[in-house]
Write a structure and sequence with these properties.
Keywords: Polyamine biosynthesis, Transferase. This is YALI0E04763p. Pfam families: Spermine_synt_N, Spermine_synth. GO terms for molecular function: spermidine synthase activity. This protein is an alpha/beta fold. The chain has 2 domains: 57 residues, Spermidine Synthase, Chain: A, domain 2; 226 residues, Vaccinia Virus protein VP39 (Rossmann fold, 3-Layer(aba) Sandwich), CATH 3.40.50.150. The protein is 29% helix and 29% strand. It contains 10 helices and 13 strands. The strands form 2 sheets. A 7-stranded mixed β-sheet has the order 9-8-7-10-11-13-12, sandwiched between helices. Strands 1-2-3-4-5-6 form a 6-stranded antiparallel β-sheet, covered by helices on one side. Helix 6 links the parallel strand 10 and strand 11. The longest helix has 13 residues. It is globular, with a radius of gyration of 18 Å. The protein starts with 10 loop residues before the first strand and ends with a helix. Bound molecules: S-adenosylmethionine (SAM). S-adenosylmethionine binds next to strand 6, strand 7, strand 8 and helix 5.
């Protein structure tokens, strides 16, 4: 019996290549050891492969979402920058996040009573349980409730109800596919309504200062039109094109988001987290001069 080898258009001669119209003229390459899964779900093209250096890698619509080796940098930053900007987060919502890594981080905060996650594509959760167990462990916590549906529709319902959140984390894919609405003004207005008065929102900004920085500025301007305080920070990691991913953090009431409201002890930090610490929280907001001038229009 012959076993058919899996194939994917982004993999040639054992090299995966990520290219996108959002960052023309450059790409990211990873060496592939084995293709583990290829499918077209109802919402997106799904690929999982084992790389030679970065462990298993999840790719949606041709764009790397997470790799086992460096995922903690992204998951910790998108979670803890927001969570540490709140005095006592009890109810937390993740939009997207189907690999489970952000949930894994949220429940490290003892104040959390409920962590909800709304993911559109159940196959991402199932595949993460199979191929990314160190992230999918986040689904095992008893405080976690999962909703399988469109995150925009979900947040619209939350905004109409009395069920508010302290922190909302948008851990979505890029704006080209089912996550497009998460980068528009209406979404941020709904988030604002869905938050308690001292609520915090963080969202992956899809780009960074080296890639489509106009997009980052546009997103920041949208957020500034809705929230009292808005800041841009970045997580540094090799498997996102150009080595970093920007995050937009917003607060409903005016506050200095660059300084964490709480912090773990050194012992807690060294046992709970591998990337995030108080110094990284503060430093992640520091921009090079050209980016600062562009973003702030100075
Ligand atoms: N860390 C990643 C990044 O920034 O590249 C994001 C990882 S996470 C796996 C992204 C998730 O968002 C995917 O599982 C995708 O299915 C989900 N997603 C995209 N659009 C969505 C929508 N409209 N509602 C809920 N989840 C959505």
């Amino acid at each position: 019996m012959t076993v058919k080898q899996l194939e994917h258009a982004s993999i040639k001669n054992s090299w995966f290549t990520e290219v996108s119209d959002s960052f023309p003229g450059q790409g990211l390459m990873l060496k592939v050891e084995e293709i583990l899964h290829v499918s077209q779900s109802e919402f997106q093209d799904v690929l999982v492969f084992r790389s030679t250096e970065y462990g298993n890698v999840l790719v949606l619509d041709g764009v790397v979402q997470v790799s086992e080796r460096d995922e903690f940098a992204y998951q910790e930053m998108i979670c803890h920058v927001a969570m540490m900007s709140h005095e006592c987060p009890k109810r937390v919502l993740v939009i997207g996040g189907g690999d489970g890594g952000v949930l894994r981080e949220i429940v490290k905060h003892e104040s959390v009573e409920a962590a909800h996650l709304c993911e559109i594509d159940e196959s991402v959760i199932e595949l993460s349980k199979k191929y990314l167990p160190n992230m999918a462990v986040g689904f095992d916590n008893t405080k976690v409730t999962v909703h399988i549906r469109d995150g925009f529709e979900f947040i619209r319902e939350v905004a109409r109800s009395d069920e508010k959140y302290d922190v909302i984390i948008t851990d979505s894919s890029d704006p080209d596919g089912p996550a497009e609405k998460f980068f528009q003004r209406e979404y941020f207005q709904l988030l604002h309504t869905a938050l308690n008065d001292d609520g915090i929102v963080i969202t992956q900004s899809s780009e960074n200062v080296w890639l489509n920085f106009k997009f980052v500025k546009q997103l920041r301007d949208i957020c500034k039109g809705v929230f009292a305080s808005v800041e841009y920070c970045a997580a540094l990691l090799p498997t996102y094109t150009s080595g970093q991913l920007g995050l937009m953090v917003c607060s409903k009431k005016p506050t200095n988001l660059k300084i964490p409201k709480r912090q773990w002890t050194q012992e807690e930090e060294s046992s709970l987290v591998r990337y995030y610490n108080k110094e990284i929280h503060e430093a992640s907001f520091v921009l090079p001069n050209w980016a600062k001038h562009f973003l702030e229009g100075t």
